[in-house]
Amino acid sequence: MATGSAPEQTLFVRKASGLVKGWSGGDGFRYSFFSVNLFLAIWSFAYACFFPGGSMFWAIVITAIFMVLEIIVYSGLISAMPRAGGDYVWQSRIFHSAVGFAFCAVGWWFILWLWTPIYADMGVQTTVKPIFRILGLNGAADWLGGRTGIFISALVVIAISSTLVAIGMRAYAKFQVFAMYVGLAGVVVLGILLLATPGDSFKQKFNAAAERYYGGDVGLLDLQKYQTDADGLFVYDDDGAIVPAEGEKYDGAFEAIEAIGAGTGMPTSTFEGGFGKETWFLIPFMLFWMGWPVWGATLYGEVRGAKDFRKNIYQLLGGLFVPTLIALAFLALMTWKVGYQAFMGTMAAFWWGISPLGGDSVSPTAMLSWIVPNAAFQVILIAAISLLLFGWFGTLFLSSTRMIFAAAFDRILPEGAARVTSGGVPVVALLLMTIPSIIVAALYAYSPESKEYGVTIVKLFTYDATLGIVIMFLVTGLAFMVMKWRARSIWDAAALPKGEIAGIPWMAVIAAIYSAFMIWVVYRFIIDPMYGTNNKESGIFMGVLYVAAVVVWLIAYVVRKRQGMELEAVAKEIPVE
Question: Looking at the domain assignment, is residue 20 inside a domain?
Fold first, then answer.
């Protein structure tokens, strides 16, 4: 009588990943470009109000220099281990399975749920609300600011992001091409309009459009002036609110935002402030925008030619420098044509709740479209540029699904999370992003507001969204720094520059400088309340996330141990393709 034998136990879930190398180097560049998103730049500019003595221009330049180091670090690791999962795979193979999973589960999985309402708010404020105002749908625009409007907006973002992931890498790449070129064409049109419009003419057109779309009944022309001290800066009450001066009026909306920019202490030019400490303090805010040229690192198991170190650098540098140069040109033009204080006044007015435009954030794309007094033209132009935003929405879940997939492929997560369709889409991993994001969005919108902070506690946690990723990137920098000694066989086999000084590779020196910079950024997040992460609640929240990740790993360790497998044995091998 024949006896059956037990099925062979393999380290990985299967002999091939099932993912498809569906992207070219050009697709990798475009994904990096979308990740360093121009709409994120607008949000980062807004935070300059909290350090008015700093230079936005020099903060961007300094940040870009350090991001070049980040690109070198990540290009080297991609070249050495071009596998789905990126940071998780590298940290696991260089340090330990538990280290890789704990930091990357927080940075690529749990923390990304919090980005859903961030993406939604950005879309609403910069695109949807301005279009609704132009179309006269003021009730709908106001509704978007309510709890249900916030939740529905997040659901729309989840639906778009899930769809862009579910259609597969090749189809998403085609959409990226379309969205990038149409969006950039819109940006060029805006630049031409701004160049061709004298400053006085812009002011008149701004005031006329503001009154047309927002009306005097929301305080456009009746906005009270505010008390200022001997230096012309606003006077604040004990709660941080700006104290109004009864009975005084501004002539129009432009004059109001200009006065707000001056009153909050903003400089008259983006170039003022030099290399002072407040310029450096702007850098963590700049990382909210500029920190992500390597966002596609988890996808490079599906990018052709990923072992080529130089090509990786070119792709990622393009993704960093193209939006950075556009943003710098935009700031220079706004300083010249509109006035830096007026531009920053739109941001300060929003943060302090004194916007002369019904409390809306004044979207730069909207207010520049007002140069042409035609509603149809304005809507078309805003919608065209918004493709840069909607093309970016796919990044919300796409990179994260590959980290989840990789952890399941290594048998830390249930094997079902490594399941892929015939087109290479990890559907279960996608659900592990989508379903929790819906829950977080609901909590963000409907949970009670904190009396101390004036926002829902989940909204407070969104300020940790950058911190969690920065910590993960720091650990990756440290991994590359010690790769020669911790993973010698991988280092020797990698097609990397191997030059050394005193026995230390230049690549390790670059990684050390990058890691030191990221340690400084984390330190600033921890000690300075201006970033919204320096509070007990955020500390507890981040601690809970890391503990949860460690608990998941420990459960997997026990389960696999009972099955006769050591998780660390898996982490000693490079995943199959």
Answer: no
Q: Are 207 and 254 in contact (CB under 8 A)?
A: yes
Residue with tokens 């420098």: 321
CA distance linking residue 429 with residue 402, whole number of Å: 8
d(CA 349, CA 341): 11
Q: How far apart are CA 468 and CA 105, in angstroms?
A: 10
Tell me which residue range forms the domain holding 426.
25-570
Dump pLDDT digits (tens) for 244-298: 887 677 888 898 889 999 999 998 898 888 888 999 999 999 999 999 999 999 9
3-state secondary structure 235-289: CECCCCCECEEEEEECCCHHHHHHHHHHHCCCCCCCCCCCCCHHHHHCHHHHHHH
Residue 363: what pLDDT?
A: 86
Quote the CA–CA distance of 260 and 93 in Å, as a whole number: 52
Give every CB contact of residue 63 below 8 A, 6+ residues apart in sequence: 283, 286, 287, 290
Average pLDDT over residues 206-212: 90
Question: Which range has the top average pLDDT, 37-51, 176-190, 202-216?
Answer: 176-190
- Measure the CA–CA gap between 183 and 199, rounded to whole angstroms: 25
Judge contact between 159 and 363, C-beta under 8 A.
no
Q: What are phi and psi of 225, to 5 degrees?
A: -75, 165
The CATH number of the domain where 360 resides is what?
1.20.1740.10
Helix H or strand E encompassing 225: strand 224-226
- Contact present, 172 and 424 (Cβ < 8 Å): no
Tell me which DSSP letter residue 393 carries: T
For residues 316 and 152, give the distance between their C-alpha atoms in angstroms, rounded to a whole number. 34
Arithmetic mean of pLDDT, 217-229: 68
Asked whether residue 4 is assigned to any structural domain, the reply reads no
Say what the alpha-carbon torsion angle 88, 94, 99, 101 is, to the nearest 10 degrees.
20
Are 567 and 123 a contacting pair, CB within 8 Å? no
Inter-axis angle of helices 395-409 and 427-446, to 10 degrees?
Answer: 130
In angstroms, what is the C-alpha Rg of the chain? 25
397 in any annotated domain: yes
Residue 449's beta-bridge partner residues? 456
SS3 assignment, position 55: coil
- Residue 357 is which amino acid? L
Query: How many domains is the chain partitioned into structurally?
Result: 1
3-state helix, strand and coil shares in percent for the chain, rounded to the nearest 5: 70, 5, 30
Q: What is the pLDDT of residues 378-407, one digit of tens each?
A: 999 999 999 999 999 999 999 999 999 999
Assigned domain for 366 exists: yes
- For residue 109, pLDDT beyond 90: yes
- For the beta carbon of residue 71, count every other beta carbon within 10 angstroms: 23
Q: Which two tokens stand for residue 360?
A: 């809306």
Q: Which residues contact 237 (CB under 8 A, 6 or more apart)?
A: 243
Do strands 224-226 and 244-249 pair parallel, antiparallel, or not at all (unpaired)? Answer: antiparallel
* Cα–Cα dist 106/408, whole Å: 15
Cα–Cα distance between 213 and 135 in angstroms, integer?
A: 8
